[in-house]
Amino acid sequence: MPKQTFFNLPEKKRERIINAALEEFSENLFSKASINKIVEKAKIPKGSFYQYFKNKKDLYKYILDQIFQLKIKYISDSLKNRNSSDFFESFEAMIEAGFKLTLDYPLYAKIGQNFMLEDRKFVSEITEEYSSQGENFVFSLLKKAQDNGEIYEHIDLKMVSFLISKISIFILDYIKQNNESMDYENIKKILNDFMFIIKNGIRRGKNDKD
């Protein structure tokens, strides 16, 4: 997280630094992003950068945290405006909310896409910090659905919330191995296919139609 000196800056200067970082991280993977370019775009001395942030990763994690918090707000607002408590409809609404965020903030979307292209060790390191929050959020939705009789009573909700919260990493591996498109429409389709399996399993019913 940024040092207090960063938060002591005038708002316009903070915005200039963040906007320069957003531009750089949206154009490059983390490993290729340049502090020199960020300070040049932000019009600050390089020495000042280290008065505000410990290093490049410190700034990068701050940017990702801002995106994560905004995404949680989008999802919370989306769920708040719905009447249904159905878990699967709620999950679809969460996907839609995430998709709306990418349309409203294209630079965030690009940073998110670049993040998914980083190596797995780096992705795991970063996402580990948010996994417990994601699991708790999904668990609360599942528990509500189980209490309403939508989900079998014997299902281990802790295990299911773990699997669902880790889905972004699984999908990332799937996309990389199969050279799938990284555009959000395709990611959305893959997420929906995954939820179909969670909801219906893989065994075809005797009365199912083609």
How would you describe this structure to a colleague?
By secondary structure, this protein is mainly α. The protein is built from 11 helices and no strands. The model has no long low-confidence stretch (mean pLDDT 84).
Task: Please sum up the structure shown.
By secondary structure, this protein is an all-alpha fold. The protein has helices spanning 4-7, 11-27, 35-42, 46-52, 56-80, 87-104, 106-116, 120-147, 157-165, 167-177, 184-200.
Beta-strand residue fraction: under 5%
C-alpha Rg, in Å? 20 Å
Count helical runs.
11
Average residue-wise pLDDT: 84
Q: Portion of residues in helices?
A: over 70%
Largest sheet properties: none
Could you state the order of secondary-structure elements as H and E? HHHHHHHHHHH
Instruction: Count all strands and give the number.
Output: 0
What structural class do helix, strand and pairing data support?
Answer: mainly alpha
Low-pLDDT residue spans: none
Instruction: Report how far apart the termini are.
Output: 52 Å
Pfam family, one: TetR_N
Protein name: TetR/AcrR family transcriptional regulator
InterPro entries: Homeodomain-like_sf, HTH-type_Tx_Regulator, HTH_TetR, Tet_transcr_reg_TetR-rel_C_sf
DNA-binding region: 34-53
Helix and strand topology:
Blueprint: H1 4-7, H2 11-27, H3 35-42, H4 46-52, H5 56-80, H6 87-104, H7 106-116, H8 120-147, H9 157-165, H10 167-177, H11 184-200
Helix pairs in contact: 2-3, 2-7, 5-6, 6-7, 6-11, 8-9
Keywords: DNA-binding
Organism: Marinitoga aeolica
DNA-binding region: 34-53
